[in-house]
Structures are given as C-alpha cells and as structure tokens.
Predict the structure.
Amino acid sequence: DAMVIQNPRYQVTQFGKPVTLSCSQTLNHNVMYWYQQKSSQAPKLLFHYYDKDFNNEADTPDNFQSRRPNTSFCFLDIRSPGLGDAAMYLCATSLGLAGVADTQYFGPGTRLTVL
Amino acid sequence: DAKTTQPNSMESNEEEPVHLPCNHSTISGTDYIHWYRQLPSQGPEYVIHGLTSNVNNRMASLAIAEDRKSSTLILHRATLRDAAVYYCILMTSGAGSYQLTFGKGTKLSVIP
C-alpha cells in the first residue's frame, strides 16, 4: 500500500562526497516535491516538478539539484554535502489538478547524516 | 513567509475533544486553509482543508470563521496516536505553483 517511497531511510555520507536520495510514487501524480527538514524545524520546500517542468525555490542552494526521469521517480542530488546539510529530506506528491485545494502526500523521509 | 499564527504547544487528555486554533488575518479571498500533522519520525500527513464552509472528514473537523481570519481544527476524541505537530497552512496560488509553506505549528501532547 506504500504510495510515496523513499530510499534509503537513513543515509550517511562524508563531507563533500556527492549523495543521491531517491523517491518513487505509485499514485501517478503529476507533481513531486522535495523538502528539507532540519532538527526541530518545519519542513522547507527546496523545489518541485510539475510533470517535467522544474521549479526551484529562490533560496535553494546550488548544491542541491533534482532529476525526474519519469512520472514515478524523482531524485535529490547533493553535490558536495556540508555539515549544515544534515537533515531529514522529505519527498511529497500531489495530483496537481486542484490548484490551491491540492493535497500533498508525503513519504517517510530520508535522514541524512554528514560526517 | 508563513502567514499563520498558532500556539507553540497544547495539551489534551485522552478521549477528550481538542480545539487547535490558527490565526490568518492576512488571508486573501482565494487562499485555502490546509491542516497537516507530523507524527514523531514520520513525514507530514494531510488532515483537512477548506475555503469558507466548515468541513468534516474521518480524521477531524475544520471550523472557519465567517471573516476567514481564523480557523480551528477539531479532533473530536483525542487518542495517544494524535500526539503530533499540527501545521495550519495557507495555500496560495501564484505563477502556476502551489506551495505549502510550513510555519512552526502546534505541538499537541495527549495525556493518558
């Protein structure tokens, strides 16, 4: 029954070593989102895809990139992780047809540790 | 910037109703009011949303003030499983993107 799947659930990387987090969905939704949530803070949107159209938030660092090869999968690439990038990374999806009434479905998150 | 104001924390006894308030005095006519919650170590979960009229679903009820400057999420019988951070979010359209901007939320504790 899993609808938004994130792998791995826990990821450890070294300072400066590129890392990729993955998200897949079984909902066939048009929109996929990536959020960053640091300890004791609220989730913060990094970017989202509406189908193949990429939308980057203005304050998302260049170190973060994303790929969406098909409807089901979306990847978050961190090119050179710093200690400040340690966080929970949340993937979400939405149908994208209801506008401001759209509902987002979140995955369980990947907790990234940077050593 | 988050455009909602919520209490930092609230407590409730198990099996009693809980009223979680949210102020959104700068709401515009087309903004939807969404509520999500986040249980410990999990991703956020959709609870309910509305525009003007009160809304009910299997999880909760949403009461929206007539002037729409405030709303209240109502959990009719709190259970231990309802202990979570509850986020009240205004969904605003613009440039084709529909963003959830999370504020600090209300941490709900449920006392057995």
Notes: The mean pLDDT of chain B is 91. The beta strands of chain B are 9-13, 18-23, 32-38, 45-50, 55-56, 61-64, 70-75, 84-94, 97-99, 106-111. The radius of gyration of chain B is 14 Å. Chain B touches chain A at residues 2, 30-32, 34, 36, 38, 42-46, 49, 51, 87, 91-93, 96-105 (CB under 8 Å).
